[in-house]
Amino acid sequence: MGKLARKVAMVGAGMCKFGRNFPEKRNPDMWIDAWLDAVDKTDNGIEPKDIDACYVGNYSSDLFNHQGHLGPQMANLVGLTPKPAARFEGACASSGIALRQAVLAIASGVHDVVAVAGVECMTEQPTVNVTDVLATASDSLFEYPAGATFPGLYGTLASAHFKKYGTTAEDLMRVGIKNHENGAENPYAQMQQSIKDLMDSKRAKYEKQGRDIPEWEDEFDFLKSSSNPIIAYPLRLFDCSLITDGAACIFLTAEDVARDFTDEPIWIAGTGQGSAALSLHDRDSLTSFIATREASKQAYEMAGIKPRDVQIAEVHDCFTIAEILAMEDLGFYEKGKAVDAIKEGESKLDGALPINTSGGLKSKGHPVGATGAAQAVEIFKQMRGIAERNRQVKFDVETALTHNLGGSGGTCVVTVYQK
Amino acid sequence: MSENEKSFTIESYLEYIRNKKLMGSRCKECGATYVPVRKLCTECNTANMEWVEMSGKGKLAAFTSITVGTPYFVEKGYDRKNPYCFSVIELEEGPMVSGQLVGVNESEPDTIKIGTPLKATFLETDIKGETKVDLGFEPL
Ligand SMILES: [Zn+2]
């Protein structure tokens, strides 16, 4: 497997506030916000004249916003016309792919500096349409007529994991509780509330309405109650990520010019990408993603590291079960053992291997095509020691990883970052 | 048209489903079986297939009970109070397929067990004067 022909650095990264931003903010508005945030976080500044190309990750502006051809549109908004600009699509891994393609273009010598965008505006559509647009990332021919929804596909994978490894609904809930705790510390997150905060606000609402105040013993009691209905057994509402509008921006440069922009470049030490059949029924396993195993193998080899060398990771928790699958398929834990580590608190902010310090897709939000780039933004902040509020990890991060999954595991991009 | 003249396309496979037959393709070179049908064998990279009918028997590999369904299933009458099961079935011939799981208690999904022996059933739905046929499975 290959090495990059020359080193590539991340010199700046930023994002807009994630949330239900439409109609106050649409893709062009959110992208400009993300761009300005990334320029602000580039130590020596960066200008359009420094940039050679714009790579845009977006899943489905066609169906969400009746707008295709985002590459030149996004480039123009930040003064990059007439430089090359293109959109990359791989469902929820779209901007992970854009980032990887930018790395490869810089390593090849064609470009020295690339701006990577991730943009998605989902709430222009009502929820039922959003669900239907997302379903086009699964197999339309055979899974869809059998009733598959996205939560349904992950519920199906969860049922197989429960059966094979004895994983339980409580194990899933621990992932959600942890990610909401982290998201509460992220001012860019859509849902800046822990599950306990949510319980308090529900109680307050019931009191105000003069209704009986629910007596939940703890978070698990709340998460097993009718306040957290089943969406696709065994997944409940709080096992699912959010419907989100958002944008993120990453500046990547060749080694030769990185220090024009910062004294502290973060190196893209490894990049890998894998694929799999769209349909679950055509896969080798219902409890593991082959695309994740492949992408991570490539990324580890390129970086010359082992899974145990990773100190923090942003993984693709589109559903709580997906975070567990990622922890196993990335090689952090043996199959079936991630839940024990979660129970011990290892993936918490103060644990041995903090995962999704940003709040993850679960709490930060999941504007599908922007997610991969937004994961890199969190890694940038953690490695620079500039994560907001109380979510900066307490040790110096030398090696970090992002895991960006498309659809129900048809695409995966894994990136390893080093100082 | 006789079976062996039928092209190995999605439409041929769906036409069999509409006629309530679960058919696959078997590679004449290496014996690999594909359901849904494929023309190209990705085990041995040849395109030398024959149609084979599946017994329709298999076992439940994984499933979910869905309360917030697709527009198609909402049109079929499913909702939060009346959920449906999406499932992956391992056929006795080896391949896995997707199908709706019926004849189970969808509202009590804890009672549904992975590994349960199943058989194929063809589910008819009348939508706007047209009868649709979808592959489903039910306990043996
Ligand atoms: Zn063959």
Written description of the protein model:
The complex is a heterodimer of chains A (419) and B (140). Chain A contains 15 helices and eleven strands. By secondary structure, chain A is α/β, with parallel strands linked by helices. Chain A has a domain at 8-126 and 245-418: Thiolase/Chalcone synthase (Peroxisomal Thiolase, Chain A, domain 1). A nine-stranded mixed beta sheet of chain A has the order 3-2-4-7-1-8-11-10-9, with helices on both faces. In chain A, strands 5-6 form a two-stranded antiparallel sheet. In chain A, a hairpin with a 2-residue loop joins strand 5 (230-232) and strand 6 (235-236). In chain A, helix 7 (169-183) packs across helix 12 (320-329). Chain A is globular, with a radius of gyration of 20 Å. Chain A starts with 7 loop residues before the first strand and ends with a strand. The model of chain A has no long low-confidence stretch (mean pLDDT 97). Chain B has two domains: 3-53, no CATH class; 57-139, OB fold (Dihydrolipoamide Acetyltransferase, E2P) (Beta Barrel). Chain B contains two helices and eight strands, in the order αββββαββββ. In chain B, strands 4-5-6-8-7 form a five-stranded mixed β-barrel. A three-stranded antiparallel beta sheet of chain B has the order 2-1-3. The two termini of chain B are 32 Å apart. In chain B, a hairpin with a 5-residue loop joins strand 1 (23-27) and strand 2. The chains are: A alpha/beta (419), B mainly beta (140). At the A-B interface, helix 5, helix 6 and strand 5 of A face strand 4, helix 2, strand 5, strand 6 and strand 8 of B. The structure holds zinc ion. The site of zinc ion has 8 residues of chain B, from loops.
Summarize the helices and strands and which ones pair or pack.
The complex is a heterodimer of chains A (419) and B (140).
Chain A: E1 8-15, H1 27-40, E2 53-57, H2 61-65, H3 70-77, E3 85-88, H4 94-108, E4 113-121, H5 127-135, H6 150-165, H7 169-183, H8 195-208, H9 219-223, E5 230-232, E6 235-236, E7 245-254, H10 255-261, E8 266-275, H11 290-303, E9 312-314, H12 320-329, H13 338-343, H14 360-363, H15 371-384, E10 399-406, E11 411-418
Parallel strand pairs in A: 2-3, 2-4, 9-10
Antiparallel strand pairs in A: 1-7, 1-8, 4-7, 5-6, 8-11, 10-11
Helix pairs in contact in A: 7-12
Chain B: H1 10-18, E1 23-27, E2 33-34, E3 49-53, E4 57-66, H2 71-75, E5 84-91, E6 96-101, E7 117-127, E8 130-139
Parallel strand pairs in B: 6-8
Antiparallel strand pairs in B: 1-2, 1-3, 4-5, 4-7, 5-6, 7-8
Bound molecules: zinc ion (ZN).
